[in-house]
Design a protein that fits this description.
It contains one helix and two strands; from the N terminus they run E-E-H. With about 90 residues, it is of the alpha+beta class.
């Protein structure tokens, strides 16, 4: 049996000709109004998706910038090396 803490619980039965499965789901019955539910849903959206996406975008931008600068420096060094051997 699944524990839901202070929340309520509901069971759903799904079956076909050969087997069946019982799905237990936790409910948030303790919230008094839908405003608090919406606020909690926004909090979850920001904490689980938006903040990690922004953090990853910042980090990948930093990495790409460092790689671009190192490639640019390497090309400059390679051109200087080619000019030294050409003379």
């Amino acid at each position: 049996m699944m524990m839901c803490g202070m929340q309520g619980m509901t069971d759903s039965l799904y079956f076909n000709a050969e087997s069946y499965v019982v799905v237990a789901a936790c409910l948030d019955k303790n919230y008094s109004g839908s405003g608090l539910r919406v606020a909690f849903a926004w909090y979850q959206l920001i904490a689980v998706f938006v903040l990690p996406a922004v953090t990853m975008a910042y980090c990948y931008t930093f990495v790409v910038n460092v790689l671009w600068l190192s490639t640019k420096r390497l090309n400059t060094l390679m051109q200087a090396d080619r000019c030294a051997y050409a003379h």
